[in-house]
Structure formats: structure tokens, C-alpha cells
Amino acid sequence: MNKSLKILNTRKYSVLFVSILTILYSCVPGKAIIRAESKIVPEQYKGQIIDTVNDVTVKWKDFFKDSNLEGLIHTALTNNQELNIMLQHMNIAQNEIQAKKGEYVPYVNIYLGAEVEKVGEYTRNGAIEKNLNIREGRAFPEPLKNFTGGLSASWEIDIWKKLRNGKKAAVLEYLASVEGIQFMKTQLIAEIASVYYELITLDNQLEIIDQNLSIQQNALRMVKLQKEAARTTQLAVRRFEAEVLKNQSNKYQVRQKIVENENKINFLVGRYPQAVLRNSNDFITKAIDSVAAGIPLQLLENRPDIRRAELELSASKLNVKIAKANFYPTIDIKANMGLEAFKTTFLKNTPESLLYALAGDVVSPLINRNGIKAAYKNANSKQLQAVFEYEKTILTAYLEVSNQLSNIKNLQKSFELKEKQVQALKESIDLSIQLFKSAKAEYTEVLLTQREVLDARLEIIETKRDQLLANVKLYQSLGGGWR
Questions:
Q1: Are strands 133-134 and 107-117 parallel, antiparallel or unpaired?
Q2: Residue 410 and residue 404: Cα distance in Å, rounded?
Q3: Tell me, what's the pLDDT at 483?
Q4: What is the DSSP letter of 352?
Q5: Of 144, 191, 154, which Cα lies nearest the Cα of 342?
Q6: How far apart, in whole angstroms, are the C-alpha atoms of residue 432 and residue 438?
Q7: What is the pLDDT of residue 404?
Q8: Is residue 474 a contact partner of residue 291, using CB atoms and an 8 Å limit?
Q9: How far apart are CA 413 and CA 398, in angstroms?
Q10: CATH superfamily entry for domain 108-157+330-363
């Protein structure tokens, strides 16, 4: 009969416990976790044929064939402060995995304790101790000492996978930080290459200005001779002098830009100002290798920022589950085992001095759960942010590649036309001077021709630079540079 009653009571308590869990579960907000599928991208880039050949897997050492530039990039990957800061963020994320992993395994501690207590005689405890004898009629010691030592353990049973999901989320955050470093490498390498080519451009512009100054100074001497022969006026002389002074002034502006760009490179490679070694010869005739873009779908695998956004989205889904688990009861188990006595010599007397305890707690939020609800809503909002960030990153990547493909094509056409323009203007310089000598052209035509030649030669140098930069940016946009 007693056994049947015990079984019946056990069933009642089990039903009651399940009912409470069901009620608590039904009170949990029912907002569904958003699952973002891989963003659908176009099958091909606009104006490009479908071709899966992709140069993004080319290592940066093979892509940049300038030994000076290669040395700068190698130094930057070691010394750049921002990159090293990101590496420490990665280490922090890795340590977070270890911390999260330890949360769902039991905690075991060792403890030792000693205390002295004196209670008032006219209290319940005092009256009991007054009449309490220890072995062989010994009076209860006063003041009472107590010595303890042993092991204590606590464990939160992760039935809702809250702690395990926290560890998985930490792993994803760590992997996202790794991808963040790879993305920073692509940006750093592209920036160094861009500034390096800008320096070479400035070197060539400075050389062109010097060449043009030589032509203008010869023209100035000619005009002065013409004035002495009364074949022109002082106005022409002064106009030519002003043009020479103008270009001499431009030289200092170019030199200042060279200093600033050298210092920018020095900052990127993590060193104090010094000369930047570079090869500025044959810049105009420098061959530019084409970059195979492949198909847009390959961006999802090759771009570190897209992979990072995808990992952060996965982590945000787990964070929603963690926030939802906070509505459910937590089950804690605590245990103690050790020795306790009021005198150290008694600690060796077992089982008399032995103590042990085992307890289990079930705790669930019931009233005023606003904080938990707010955390759950925040987790859902952050997941939405991660979804939009993922979509934005993919769209940005596609547009960057599309822009650079179009840019490369248009720059090539522009460069070809500027070559013809420069050639035509070079021939017009000699022609304008001959016509001026024979009084068949005004001095203003000579000035204008020289100015147009200078502008055209500077522009073709800038176009060549833009072609190199477009190739670098396309390589970066495809996800190259971190290998």
C-alpha cells in the first residue's frame, strides 16, 4: 500500500513539473528565427561572357611583379599597427571560446576554512551549547572553533543548449575575426600598391614638367631674340617668363605630394619617414596583365568580408536561441564533500567528521521578465541587422567588380586616344615655333601649344596610373590579396 502511494505521489510530482514547464514554454515569445539563404547573385557580370576562370587565387607575390612593391607589402603585413590590433582581437575571440567551453562542464573547487564563534548564553543556541556534552562528559567548547576542508562542485545542466550554443557562437565569432583579418590584408595590400603607383606617377610627372621647362626656356630665349630684332614685343617675353615660372612652381607642388605619399607608405608599413625605393622607368610602356573575373557566384567563396558576414549571421541565429533559452528553467546541481570538526585532531576521525551534501535547484523567471524579453528582442533585431549586412556586403562586392570591369575597358580606350593626342601635340610644338619664327603664327599659339602638350602628357600619365589602380582594385574586389 505504501509503495503504491509513493508511486502515485511520484507521478503527481512529475505531471506537476511537466505542466509547469509547459506553461513556462507557452509564455515564451514565439518570434521565429530568421533564416537567410545565400543571396542570389546574377549569373554573370554586365557586359561579360560567362567564364569560371578566376585569377583571385593568384597569390599577391605573383600578382605584383615589382620587387620594391613586394618588399613594402611584406613589411606592412608584419609591422602595420592596425593589422596587429586586429590580430589581438582574434586572440581575444579565441580566448572567448575557451571561456564558453568551460561554462557547460562542472565547476569543482577545493576549500579550507577556519572560524571562531561565541554565542550569547541567553539564546537558543547558547542554552543548547551550555547543556551539550562532547564525549566522556566534556563540556561543549567555548568559544566554538570550526575547521573545514573538502571539495565543492556545481553544475548547470544545459538541457536547453544555451551554454553549448554560446560556445558555438563564440567559435563563429572567432572565425569571423579571422576573415576580418584576411579582409584587412586585402585592403592594406591594395592601399600600399595604390600609393606606390601614385608615387611613380608623380615621379614621371616631375620628369615631364622638367622636360617641358626645357622646351619653354628655349622658347623664352627665342622670344627674347625676336624682341631684340624688333619682331615681337615685351608682352610676349613676359608671357613666356610667366609660363616658365608657373611650371617651376608646379614642380614644388609635385615634390610635396611625393613627400606626403612616401610618408603615407611609411605609415602603412609601420616605420618612420624614409625614402621609398621604386622603379619609375618605362612607366608609360609598362604592360598591364588582364585579370580574369570569373562569375559572381565565386564572390561568396573568395571575398573574406562576405564570409565574415555569413559567419556573423550564423552566430546571430545562435544568439537568438540563447536569448530564448533564458525564458526556460535552469537546473543546477551542487555537491559538497569534506571534513568538519571543532578541533583539528578530530578531522581524522571518520566517519564522525565526514560531511557531504547534494542539492538540486530548478529556477525559472516568473514575474517581471521585461529584461529577458528585451534581450530576446534585441537578439532578433541584431539578427535582422546581420541579414541586411550580409545582403549589403554581397551587393557591394558585385558592384565593385562590375565597376572595375567597366573602368578597365573604358580606361584602355581612353589611353589609346590620349597616345594619339600626345603624338599630335608633340609634332605641333616644332611646327608652332617654325611658324612663329617666320612670322606666320602669334606667340600665343606657341604658348597654347606648349601648355596643351604638357597637360596632355600629364593626363596620359594619370590615365596609366588609373589603369594600374583599376587592376589592383579589381583583384581586391574579387577577394584577392590575402593569400
A1: unpaired
A2: 10
A3: 83
A4: T
A5: 144
A6: 10
A7: 95
A8: yes
A9: 23
A10: Outer membrane efflux proteins (OEP) (2.20.200.10)
pLDDT < 70 stretches in the chain: 1-39, 134-139
Residue 71: all three cell numbers together: 618588399
Order across the sheet with 107-117: list the strands: 107-117, 144-157, 330-341, 354-363
Burial class (CB in 10 A: 0-12, 13-18, 19+), 204: buried
Break the chain into its structural domains and give their ranges. 29-105+159-328+372-477, 108-157+330-363
What does the pLDDT look like over 30-55, one tens digit per residue?
Answer: 555 555 555 578 888 887 888 888 88
| pLDDT at residue number 21 | 52
Grid cell at residue 246: 608657373
Which has the closest alpha carbon to 29: 329, 374, 384, 362? 374
Nearest in space to 170 (alpha carbons), one of 241, 102, 242, 252: 102
Which residue, among 398, 152, 150, has the nearest Cα to 295 in the 3D structure? 398
pLDDT for the residue numbered 11: 53
Amino acid in position 322: I
Is 0.90 surpassed by the pTM of this model? no
Calculate the alpha carbon distances from 411 to 45, 289, 319, 425, 427 in Å. 18, 14, 47, 20, 24
Query: For residue range 417-434, what is the model confidence (pLDDT) as tens digits?
Result: 999 999 998 888 888 888
Report helix angle 234-268 to 443-477, nearest 10.
Answer: 10
> How many C-alpha atoms does 376 have within 13 Å on its Cβ side?
18
For 29-105+159-328+372-477, which CATH superfamily applies? Outer membrane efflux proteins (OEP) (1.20.1600.10)
Element (H, E) at 323: helix 304-325
Under DSSP, the state recorded for 230 is T
Map residue 182 onto helix, strand or coil: helix
Cα–Cα distances in angstroms (integers) from residue 449 to residues 127, 426, 453, in the given order: 118, 9, 6
Q: How far apart are alpha carbons 278 and 266 in whole angstroms?
A: 13
